[in-house]
């Protein structure tokens, strides 16, 4: 997913005659600029507005002198638009800059239009990859916008801050600044070259900021910009080449996250593991300084992992790093059509060698050229067989300005939504009905497999009943779900107990008793049950439970009482193989009832 870098950041709203109300002829006093991020979810943060503020605070003479203040404000797209409008109005800002992405475009434009009505004298700005690709299209879509910042935003924004410091808050104040498209002065745009030394960009996060609590938030960070690949569906393919932050700077930034104990930091580098000497040094720094808390997320090309890197990963502490691995398709014709270079056999080998203690998830995209439903089945089965921790099925987004848009417009059978996120509706190879079938599978993968609810059960069924054809399993399961639940809706939220009962019915229809053993196992992994459902065949032994507690050192002399030990453990017998003696397991649960650890106890009952 394109997270949005400052390269594609801003739309600027300076007043223009005939569109927006005129501002005061002269502004005196301190100018307040508000940078606004409307995130997809509360847990997310906006990196771009932080980078712009940090750069302006160090590079803008107006910001340094105090004649202009630059502040941040974040909301999420699930809030009512009027909540955001009110917050902006009450900020008392003289100029407002919005960061616009695929997930917040419509909400941002609504807010911009309302802000213009209640703040007629304000300078309004919006921006991001959703608007900077075409100034004319953006101006037409939202008449309240006056200007667009195109290209990397830091230097452009800093110069805009200086232009607004103590001067007229009019569009004309921004004339001549490279990287700004002005509605009132169309045709005067001049591009700005990218920043050569990324080390000149200040670190965007602050120590001890009371207004920002990283707990339960995803913090985004970049150690490079650009991408060497030309994947047709990705906006990053427009900006060729890769630039890096200095390595010592990256070490310093990572040290900050570790010292401040940030829970999750996502590197937004499009392909992190391009330079082996560089990425190994960064991982080594994380390993050697890890605090046991912070998790660093990386998007990697698994086929580029060297033998040295795979050996090194064995030394990484559990919970220090996680990987997102883009596969997109296992069909070579599809990969060639979108300009993605990948050898799936090499990729499979590398993924299989990533240590299991490192959480990883793999991505697929449905709706790509040259891939029909049967081909996608093969891609899905291939990706599922990699046994990653998560399998994410996405759907092609036909983004304006990309090579994919050219491909899609040249094929009459390609159809996609005219509104964000511009998701594919049909292709010459996969019709709408077939894409709906993939959506059903994606829903069940997410709720039953990626969630961990019934992971072992589903793996067993794929392996032993469906001969490795994972897509067939989920397709059959989707049909069973629709008949099992009276509403017949796969997309309604279900209680875990209801999902387990449905799975038990599905397994019964297949007549696979061993799969039911795995379902019982998955059921106990979810937490200590308050009661056992009707489908669950309980095979409890109090004597076996006592022996397991004693052999584990949980209960006994000098240990916790039997009552307390029983309250946080469960004991059960499983017949995973009918030809062998049943196996006994002791489940040890955490304080909140979730299984933090499972211990296999071999006993003779």
Structural description of this entry:
The protein is α/β, with parallel strands linked by helices. The protein has four domains: 177 residues, Rossmann fold (3-Layer(aba) Sandwich), CATH 3.40.50; 226 residues, Alpha-Beta Horseshoe (pyruvate-formate lyase- activating enzyme), CATH 3.80.30; 78 residues, no CATH class; 67 residues, no CATH class. Helix content is 37%, strand content 17%. The strands form five sheets. The chain has a seven-stranded mixed beta sheet, with helices on both faces. A six-stranded parallel beta sheet has the order 8-11-12-13-14-15. A three-stranded antiparallel beta sheet has the order 18-19-20, sandwiched between helices.
Features of the shown structure:
pyruvate-formate lyase- activating enzyme, globular, six-stranded parallel β-sheet, 605 residues, alpha/beta, disordered C terminus, seven-stranded mixed β-sheet, disordered N terminus, Rossmann fold
